[in-house]
Every structure is written in structure tokens, then in C-alpha cells.
Design brief:
Helix 3 (38-51) links the parallel strand 2 and strand 3. This protein has a 3-stranded mixed sheet with strand order 1-2-3. The protein is 62% helix and 8% strand. The chain has helices at 2-8, 21-27, 38-51, 63-91, 96-103, 111-120, 132-148, 154-171, 181-188; strands at 18-19, 30-35, 52-58. The protein folds into 2 domains: 2-60, 3-Layer(aba) Sandwich (Rossmann fold); 65-188, N-(1-d-carboxylethyl)-l-norvaline Dehydrogenase, domain 2 (Orthogonal Bundle), CATH 1.10.1040. It is elongated, with a radius of gyration of 19 Å.
Length: 189
């Protein structure tokens, strides 16, 4: 709706959400989900190239945001799955660091497991690269988008509840890897 109103007023409109977090933003290595008319994308391509790698994902404003919703769904679920698995390792009496080193290189590995897993095993004082509150917001936006199109997202609902529980426990400004604390608190109750 906003794009249509802006087009009617003579503006060029693209939809270009990013992924890569603060680490890739600082190095200009973001992946940019760019959507819009080809001529409009061509016009802004030099700016997008300065920030990262644009990927043309559609011709309509909103297509990029759709890809971003899916990206955030997977990020939300992957972080929570990693936290649950490392908590399970601890509950089984295994050394979570040893388990992480073994599983991250196999079929169960993922970028999120390798990136967030080591920070999950540290204290809640780890440097913040992405705060829990961001995932409260993002997983909430994914849930809203899914509800709007009547898509079932039960795994996302579980992940969202874990981020909300972490925020409710006062961890909202901590690194998102510290969602693992929601298991430690349950374990200690």
C-alpha cells in the first residue's frame, strides 16, 4: 500500500531488507533481498553494492520482505534448536562444548549452531551481536505474517515463546544466544 501511494506520487520504490547482522554490516557484506521494478533496482544498485550483495528476489515491493520473513523464521528456530540441543547435552551429562565440536561439522551442523553455540556456552555477559529483544520482535513479525496468510508455523511459535521468556527474565538486551538461559532457569526450578 505504501509503495503504491509513493509510486502514484512519482517516487521510485524498492523493497530491500538485509541479512547478515552487525558483523556483516560493518564489513559491507550484507545480503540484500532487493525487490522492485528492474529500472528502479538498476538505479539504486550502486548504493546496494556499497552495502553488500544485492539479490533480486522479485518485481514487487514486498517480495523482499517476504524473503526476510522466511529468513527470520529460520534464524529464530535455528537459534532455539541449538540452545535446546546444547541444554539436552548438559542434561544427558555430556560436555556441551565437546558435543558442539562433534555435531557442528556433521549433518546436524548449521551456521547458527557454529556461530551461536560457542556463545551459548559462555556466560550471559558475552558481547551482544544481536539482542534477544530483536528476536522477540522478529519472531513476532514472522508470526504475524504467517497469521495474515493463514500459514501454520508451530516451530516458530515455540521459538517466539522462548525469546519472550528470555525477555521476561530480564535478558532482553543480552545476546540472542543467551536464550539458552531459559533452559537453565527451567532446570534449576
Amino acid at each position: 500500500e505504501a509503495a503504491a501511494a509513493l509510486h502514484a506520487a512519482g517516487a521510485k520504490v524498492i523493497d530491500a531488507p538485509v541479512t547478515g547482522g552487525t558483523a556483516r554490516a560493518s564489513t559491507g557484506e550484507l545480503v540484500i533481498f532487493a525487490a522492485g521494478e528492474a529500472a528502479e533496482l538498476d538505479f539504486v544498485e550502486p548504493v546496494l553494492n556499497a552495502m553488500g550483495t544485492p539479490a533480486r528476489v522479485g518485481s514487487q515491493p514486498g517480495d523482499g520482505q517476504g524473503i526476510k520473513v522466511i529468513n527470520q523464521h529460520l534464524c529464530s528456530v535455528h537459534i532455539v534448536a541449538a540452545a535446546e540441543a546444547l541444554s539436552l547435552a548438559r542434561a544427558l551429562g555430556l560436555d556441551p562444548a565437546a558435543v558442539l565440536a562433534l555435531v557442528e561439522k556433521g549433518a546436524a551442523g548449521s551456521w547458527m549452531l557454529s556461530d551461536r553455540g560457542p556463545r551459548m556456552l559462555q556466560s550471559t555477559e558475552v558481547e551482544v551481536s544481536s539482542a534477544i529483544n530483536i528476536f522477540v520482535k522478529d519472531s513476532g513479525l514472522v508470526a504475524a505474517a504467517a497469521a495474515a496468510c493463514h500459514a501454520e508455523v508451530p516451530l516458530l511459535q515455540v521459538a517466539h515463546s522462548r525469546y519472550q521468556a528470555a525477555a521476561d527474565a530480564g535478558l532482553g538486551l543480552r545476546d540472542d544466544s543467551q536464550v539458552i538461559e531459559t533452559w537453565r532457569q527451567v532446570d534449576s526450578d
